[in-house]
Amino acid sequence: MKNIKLIINNDLKKEKEKFFVKKELQCILNLYAKMVSNGTWKDYSFSSGSKEISFDVYQRTSDQPVLRILKNLKPKDYNEKFLIKDKNGNVLKKSENLNRLINKTSWNNLRLVK
Fold it and tell me: For residues 11 and 96, what is the distance between their CA atoms, to the nearest angstrom?
């Protein structure tokens, strides 16, 4: 007979917070589709670490990401849950709500530095 393990107090909320939830991912991918149709963005990738998860945006596949939309898993401040960073790591915008962050950012006026 195989060994059977009993798991008590399985906390699924902690596992769920290790990636973007469905509504967050839908909001990001809607923005991505809009920017691809404009010809501004070409490719994307995901990267994750112990403190953050990011959606990286590329102008060309072989380059470094020009923008990163981050979900901070261990924010120091309340409004630092979601961040937008440029390729140098500078924080362009930050908010506690991803929808508000994406909708209030004027993406067409945001210049990508080459």
Answer: 23
